[in-house]
From TrEMBL:
UniProt xrefs under InterPro entries: Growth_fac_rcpt_cys_sf, Tyr-kin_ephrin_A/B_rcpt-like
Source species, domain of life: Eukaryota
Entry-linked Pfam families: Ephrin_rec_like
Name of the protein this chain belongs to: Tyrosine-protein kinase ephrin type A/B receptor-like domain-containing protein
SUPFAM superfamilies, sorted: Growth factor receptor domain
Record-annotated Tyrosine-protein kinase ephrin type A/B receptor-like domain positions: 6-53
């Protein structure tokens, strides 16, 4: 059975099946799918490239690292968070603040209502 990228030949059914979560198949005709590195996952089944392997929810990829790290306290890390991509930085939880220059250095706000969460420096004054 000649399967497409993102699929493998299921020996039990003799049919092509999509690669399960946490795996991918780059080449056509794969007999099995390649697993992502430990701590990484894919968001969808049928992934076709190692770039589909991202840090799992609750973790993020620090700059110049090959391993996912736990989400910093006071932040939320959806699947795929990556410190090297501004749009993919972990996000602040309600009641926490950080500076744009050091977005992963998180502080608890004195007045929680002044800190709505989200990207760095989204707080009101006198936080």
């Amino acid at each position: 059975v000649a399967c497409d990228r993102g699929e493998y030949a299921d020996s039990a059914t003799q049919k092509c099946a999509l690669c399960p979560l946490g795996t991918y198949a780059v080449e056509r005709g794969a007999v099995n799918c390649t697993p992502c590195l430990a701590g990484f996952a894919t968001a969808n089944i049928g992934s076709q490239n190692v770039s589909a392997c991202v840090c799992a929810e609750g973790t993020y990829l620090p700059v110049a690292s090959l391993a996912c790290a736990p989400c910093p306290e006071g932040m939320t890390c959806e699947e795929g968070r990556d410190e090297s991509v501004v749009e993919l930085l972990p996000q602040l939880l309600y009641g926490y603040w950080s500076a744009v220059s050091r977005p992963l250095e998180v502080f608890k706000c004195i007045i929680e209502e002044h800190c709505p969460g989200g990207p760095a420096e989204t707080c009101a004054v006198y936080r």
